[in-house]
Design goal:
The structure is a single chain. This protein is an alpha/beta fold and 352 residues long. The protein has two domains: 194 residues, Rossmann fold (3-Layer(aba) Sandwich), CATH 3.40.50.2300; 134 residues, Rossmann fold. It is 38% helix and 18% strand. Helix 4 links the parallel strand 5 and strand 6. Helix 3 runs parallel beside helix 4, helix 5 packs parallel to helix 6 and helix 7 crosses helix 8. The longest helix has 18 residues. It starts with a strand and ends in a 7-residue tail after the last helix. It is found in: Cell envelope. Its main location: other. Belongs to the bacterial solute-binding protein 2 family.
Length: 352
């Protein structure tokens, strides 16, 4: 997947390269000739390269969120597990927090410790921009994860999930269900996350845009709080308001635990249920036939950030690109998981 650069280069300080978007498939780059026989057991295929061989020592500081949500916990654990794979990586982990002031202090400590790189999922991108820029100016490679800084000078590269793409994937799959089931005037419902958040707005817009492309629209919509409790409450309200539903998309598999409970309480199962994020619960429900599909929001983003931070410090690049530098911006794919490919994605499922 990666290859070593043949020329040397000093660490960039405030140089801003042209922004490019590279879609990667869940974890890393895929091989041109995947091992289809073992794909289901091993998860998405990954190409091997000499970049995995031990190189110069790299000290990486990691600051992530408090693990108060299944996906956030998976972000932290995946980053630490990835770092352990490399004998040339020394990984310094700050305590997970949702306090921007505390996270700023953590980054200040990493700067004072003179780490080589920092992988940072900020509790607030704008609030952490100044200290991240300070780290970059100190010659530290900063990898921004999931929540973007407000300045391009604050990070060498940014790894993102695709919230709009999640909505598009869910809506496109809903359109397929309408066609495959020959549904006439289907009733389509949406259980969103926190409406005030841009990520929720992006997911809803993507869903609406994809439905519009096949002549459909959202007939009933409620918003929850990304928690099981709120999911159960809002799903109950939805079911009371809509006596017939053909398709439901729920933005988040953590709140999906409550959503599923509401379905059971109401004894309603006439609809195709699509989830979001890719929890272990959702994948098990898919296997059991209780759920139609879920859309991945990769919990590997920080793990990918760790790999990229190591490459940046060791002055290596991506072998599947003609350009030998690590890209400035990477947006991960939002694939749909259903009964046909659930075994392939099961290793990426996180505990809610």
């Amino acid at each position: 997947m990666f290859r070593t650069r043949t020329r040397t280069a000093s660490r960039p300080l405030k140089t801003v390269a042209a922004l490019g978007i590279v879609g990667l498939f869940a974890v890393g780059c895929t091989s041109n000739e995947p091992d289809t026989e073992n794909a289901a057991a091993s998860g998405p295929a990954k190409a091997a390269s000499d970049n995995d061989a031990p190189g110069d020592k790299v000290v990486i500081g990691f600051s992530g969120p408090a693990a108060d949500h299944g996906w956030l916990g998976a972000i932290n654990s995946a980053a630490q597990a990835e770092a352990k794979k490399y004998s040339d990586v020394e990984f310094k982990v700050a305590e997970g927090t949702n306090d921007a002031s505390l996270q700023i202090s953590q980054i200040e400590t990493f700067i004072n410790d003179k780490v080589d790189a920092i992988v940072l999922l900020p509790t607030d991108g704008a609030a952490l921009t100044e200290v991240a820029t300070k780290a970059m100016n100190a010659g530290i490679q900063v990898v921004n994860v999931d929540r973007e800084f407000s300045s391009p000078f604050a990070a060498r590269t940014t790894v993102l999930g695709d919230n709009y793409g999640m909505g598009v994937s869910a809506g496109t799959y809903a359109c397929k269900l309408v066609k495959d089931k020959s549904l006439t005037n289907p009733v389509i419902a949406e259980i969103a996350g926190i409406d005030a958040l841009p990520l929720t707005q992006d997911r809803s817009k993507g869903f609406a845009d994809a439905l519009k492309a096949c002549g459909q629209n959202v007939d009933n919509r409620v918003s929850a709080q990304f928690t099981p409790e709120s999911g159960e409450k809002e799903a109950s309200n939805l079911l009371q308001a809509a006596k017939k539903i053909d398709i439901i998309w729920n933005h988040d598999d953590d709140q999906g635990i409550g959503v599923m409970q509401a379905f059971e309480n109401a004894n309603r199962n006439e609809f195709a249920f699509i989830g979001g994020a890719g929890s272990s619960n959702a994948m098990q429900w898919i296997k059991e036939g209780k759920m139609e599909a879920t859309v991945i929001y990769p919990p590997t983003q920080a793990a990918d950030g760790v790999r990229l931070a190591r490459l940046l410090v060791q002055q290596k690049g991506l072998s599947d690109l003609v350009q030998v530098e690590v890209p400035r911006r990477i947006v991960l794919n939002a694939p749909v998981v259903n009964k046909d490919n659930v075994e392939k994605y099961l290793p990426l499922g996180f505990k809610s």
